[in-house]
UniProtKB/TrEMBL annotation:
Name of the molecule in the record: non-specific serine/threonine protein kinase
DNA-binding listed as a keyword: no
Example of a GO MF term: ATP binding
Annotated segments matching region Disordered: 115-140
GO annotation, cellular component aspect: cytoplasm; nucleus
UniProt organism field: Pyrus ussuriensis x Pyrus communis
Domain Protein kinase: 36-323
Length: 323
């Protein structure tokens, strides 16, 4: 006698919480569900979810960025640009890229962690993929969306998390080592004709005591004398660590590097204190007393010059701090 496994329904909400046909189809078509065990949701942005996951073949832990295509403002060409950039980078101070691919994702293809945290990547539909009355092939096509996966090394924490955790108690030797790592990573990136565009402590991560630059979502590679278009310029405007000018080039990253240097020297104990420091500087050029009396005050001011032409290059910054 053939046994039919029925869907599992929540007794309170009457919502289907497990559907055998959906899981079977999802694993059949999804390399991610077949090859990786999801361990933790690390974050969610406007264009996708980042998860900590274990590869079932090599048993190593990675970070996977999952972007469902066609449901966000970013088009595939824009997302593909990030893959093209990170796949060509290999440096100890840049988050390492490993692989990427696209799969069809089904309406029911959500990890247990995403379901628990409400971090769904699709249109929210929970209907079955089986054919039947009111469920045609056309309906099934609507439930299948392309999803891009980008797998990179999994780091321990961000610089933002580290600074808040330390509560202003990071020694200058430690802070100097962080800044040197960031500068080395930025020099390598610029040496590959790439402007990062969003350099800030949330995109700087540590692994095995090496600080690395990550998240190249709005990075651009130089083509001739041009780095980008109006889209990236609009995306950059108004960010806390961003330069005041509209032009996108290496010197924009240098300004952001200067803001990070100020934060590493001042070491504000709270987020509110940090934003007060930056607001004061952007309004009248005033730096906190802790920065004003620091040996690298002059370097910080050069990095934060309003005129991009007066800012040093990453190579010049590295020479200055490693003398």
């Amino acid at each position: 006698m053939e046994v039919h496994i029925q869907p599992i329904t929540c007794p309170i909400t009457n919502i289907v919480i497990w559907e055998p046909k959906i899981e079977e189809n999802a694993k059949k078509f999804s390399r991610y569900l077949s090859d990786y065990e999801e361990l933790q949701i690390l974050g969610k942005g406007s264009d996708g979810v980042v998860a900590r996951c274990r590869n079932l073949l090599d048993n190593k832990v990675y970070a996977a960025k999952k972007i469902t295509l066609g449901v966000h403002s970013l088009d595939f060409e824009t997302i593909q640009r990030e893959v093209d950039i990170v796949s060509g980078l290999k440096h100890q101070n840049v988050v390492q890229y490993y692989t990427s691919w696209t799969d069809l994702t089904f309406a029911g293809e959500k990890s247990q962690l995403e379901l628990e945290e409400g971090r769904n990547m699709d249109d929210g539909s929970n209907s079955s993929l089986e054919e039947g009355p009111g469920n045609t092939n056309k309906d099934k096509e609507k439930q299948q969306l392309p999803c891009l996966y980008i797998v990179q090394e999994c780091c321990e924490r961000t610089l933002s998390e580290e600074l808040l955790k330390r509560g202003g108690n990071m020694t200058w030797n430690e802070a100097s080592a962080v800044f040197t790592d960031i500068t080395r990573g930025l020099l390598y990136i610029h040496g590959n004709n790439i402007v990062h565009g969003d350099l800030n402590p949330l995109n700087i991560l540590v692994k095995d005591k090496n600080w690395k630059i990550g998240d190249f979502g709005i990075a651009r590679k130089q083509v001739g004398n041009c780095f980008g278009d109006e889209q990236i310029e609009e995306a950059l405007k108004g960010r806390t660590y961003d330069a005041p000018e509209d032009k996108v080039d290496f010197k924009r990253d240098i300004f952001s590097l200067g803001m990070i240097l100020v934060e590493l020297i001042a070491q504000p104990r709270t987020v509110a204190e940090k934003y007060d420091i930056f607001k004061s500087f952007k309004k009248d050029g005033k730096l906190p007393e802790k920065v004003s009396g620091h040996p690298l005050k002059s370097l910080a001011l050069k990095l934060l010059e309003n005129d991009p032409a007066k800012r040093p290059s990453a190579a010049e910054v590295l020479r200055r701090i490693t003398l």
